[in-house]
Amino acid sequence: EASFDGTVFTSGSSKTFMLQGITAVSPDVAVAGESITVTFSDASTGIEDKVACKFGSLDAVVAVLDKTKNTLTCALPAGASASAVSATLDGAAYTSSTATVTTATLASVSPATVFYDATTSGSVVVTMSAVPAGLTKDTAKCQFGSAPAVSATAVDVTAKTITCEVPTSGLTAGDVAVEASFDGTAFTSGASQKLMLQGITSVSPVVAIAGQPITFTFNDVTGADGDKVSCKFGTKVVKASMNAAQKTFTCALPAGAVDAAVSATFDGASYTPATSTVTAAVPSSNTPTKGVIGVAVNSIVKMSAIPAGQTTATCRFAGQSVAASGVDVAQKTITCPVPAGASLDAMAIEISFDGTTFSTDSATSFTYQGISAISAFHTVVGNPIPITLTINDVTGADADNCKCKIGTTELAAKLDGNTLTCTLTDLAMDSYDVEFTLDGKTFSDQKAFTFVYQGVSKVEPAQATIGSEITLYLNDVTGVAITTSKCKFGDFVSGVKAVNADTNTVTCNGPDHATGGAVTVSFSLDGETYAVVSDAVKFEAVDPPGDGGGSNAGMIAGVVIGVVAAVAIVAGSVYYVRRRRQRATYGGLVEPLV
Fold first, then answer.
1. Is 58 in contact with 79 (CB distance < 8 Å)?
2. pLDDT, tens digit (0-9, with 9 covering 90-100), for 198-223
3. Are strands 63-66 and 106-110 parallel, antiparallel or unpaired?
């Protein structure tokens, strides 16, 4: 309306004038970065690249004009607090609003500590410095660390709180930053509020032998019930021992765990997950699996897994432990020296990484090939015989190159099933180790079986009267029997009267006649086959003293005695005749003869 005198104005005019200005600002509470909508009475003249908003003295980073809605949308800058809003449509003239916008910040999180459970971790209440009037759980959200944002489960505008469930994935134990959003897009940032997620910070080792202790380290064990703590490997639950001071649980790794997800519980119900998995290492194969006994050999054991950095291991063969001579993590192999003196039975190979816990689900074993029986253990010198060796396992045998070895003498052998048959050669009186080879190269060194060539080493006495008991010293009296064995002196044979195993002697009656000199001595185990005689071992039988019968000495003595007797008779006769003649001449008076 108009006036000429400043008092009277026109009326009923149809003419109007539009004052461009801010009619509304929404919302009046927001987080930094959240969109604020400024509504104008008319924004049709706005220039898109020159529009702008100010919150107090702070310029908005982004401003977007919508002429159809007469709105200008601006991002609330950080630091604005109960700030008056102004805006421009042409970059020059700003229009102010009586409305203010308050930047909301996150004041606190309660509780400050939550047990991080892979199934349900519970709720936290986020208290804000302010919240928009009319805020609902449909738009409010919380964000925990780098996990995806979660929708609020409750909003209390009066209490200025937002309640959210802690995510069950995407997080790790430790301090987690908490942020909140009113519109689900812009979140508080730079907040000092954090939530402590109680959980597993490390698991060690991640590769182990079944039964080996696994240590779970936590960032906090407050509230853990020592009677209910346990660990879980996949689906297998294992009772744990807790060390509150070190914030650790210790659990024995169950058999069969392969890349098993692990978790632990404070109360026997809620489990917190670990980011790592644990694998039970199992011996799967080994080579070689057999070898002749007494020969040093390594068996290389293939493992399903070996801990990174593992440099030592212990191998156990049927209860006998030896240090591994090599560990190859890349090839997953452990080199095990097979212990000497082990039995001929198949020995399960068990592996330990810590020297205490050994694998019990092993599919590996090693068998020493050796002599389990021998058909004969002795013979008399000069009577070589065939012997048969029974071998416990002949796997890999080369039938054309099998041999026996008696002492240092190698003999061709015939392989028949699990036996080797060899024909002995004539060897000297002695005891010999019996060994064998299945490939013509590698001989056993079992030293469990010996073969003896038996003979006479000495006779006592070396001379005796006929029929005396004579002691023969043998190198070995095995097989000597009173009922069948015989002694032989020259061509005279007599039975054995006694055997002494402690002194390796046999007692026999000597010849029943004088031998007329030293004769060779031998013996027989069976009364038929005699040991080859030695010229160094001889015996002589002589007649008893005063016995003229039979021997040359006796005959000579008899002749000498006869001659002496005849001479005496002749001398006596001559003496008698002479005395008779003297008496006749001198009348009986005679002088004694000189």
1. yes
2. 999 999 999 999 999 999 999 999 99
3. unpaired
Cβ-proximal residues to 255 (8 Å cutoff; 6+ apart), any chain: 210, 211, 280, 360, 361
Do 32 and 79 touch, CB atoms closer than 8 A?
yes
Q: Which long-range contacts (CB under 8 A, 24 or more apart) does 342-347 make?
A: 342/293, 342/317, 342/318, 342/368, 343/318, 343/368, 344/293, 344/368, 344/369, 344/370, 344/372, 344/392, 344/393, 345/318, 347/317, 347/318
Is pLDDT above 70 for 594? no
b/e per residue 307-322 (b: at least 16 CB within 10 A): beebeebbbbbeeeee
Q: Is residue 552 scored above 50 in pLDDT?
A: no
Return all residues near 497 (Cβ < 8 A) that are at least 6 apart.
Answer: 469, 482, 507, 508, 509
pTM to 2 decimals?
0.68
Write down how long the chain is.
594
Cα distance between residue 579 and residue 594, in whole Å:
12
H or E element: which one contains 552?
Answer: helix 552-586
41-93 tens-digit pLDDT: 998 888 988 999 999 889 887 889 999 999 999 999 988 878 889 999 988 88
Round to whole Å and give the CA distance between 464 and 466.
6
